[in-house]
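Hi there,

I know you've been waiting on this one. I reran it after we fixed the sequence typo, so this is the corrected version. Both the input and the resulting structure follow.
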Amino acid sequence: MKTITSLKQLDLNKKYTYADYLMWRLKERVELIKGKVLEMSPAPNRIHQDISGNLFFEMKLLFADNPCNLYATPFDVRLKDSKKPPKKDSDYNTVVQPDICVICDKSKLDDKGCAGSPDLVIEILSPGNSNHEMRTKFRIYEENKIPEYWIVEPANQTILVYVLQDNKYIGLQPLTTEDKMNSKIFPKMKFPIKNIFKEK
């Protein structure tokens, strides 16, 4: 079988599985959403990287004595699309790479990443990925019952926090640089939001 090294070699109208995804050696960054290949934005810009680094630093300090695991992209999260429990790689057809995620159930972790829903996912918006994060991933994360989802908006320096209630996301009050983080599932996370957006 010919090695897939470019997005141009794939039929974007076809549906693929995680087993297919593992065989690709693409130059482009992609995610798999319900079997459909979705090209990710190019490498994140400097501001995106600064915010991601600041956020990871604040969270790493808070999770130092916590049994949960903290990961930053690139890190594959495989999500199911049906009520049937996946048993093998070909049973998954959604693979995402959140900017940051927290997994407390270690049984979901393997050498390839996370098989199942994290406890928290964080996406940092970039000019080219706003619609994807705001619409597509919102629905995917909600369907997979991820308890908490943050959308970080660099342009206006805010964080939108969504908490799962009765299998639907409820948006909390937007957090600005005047606020402290207000996580419902990790109440000890009280770092100042302004720390996330500071530049050196």
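Quick highlight: The helical segments are 18-23, 46-62, 130-143, 194-197.

Best,
R. S.
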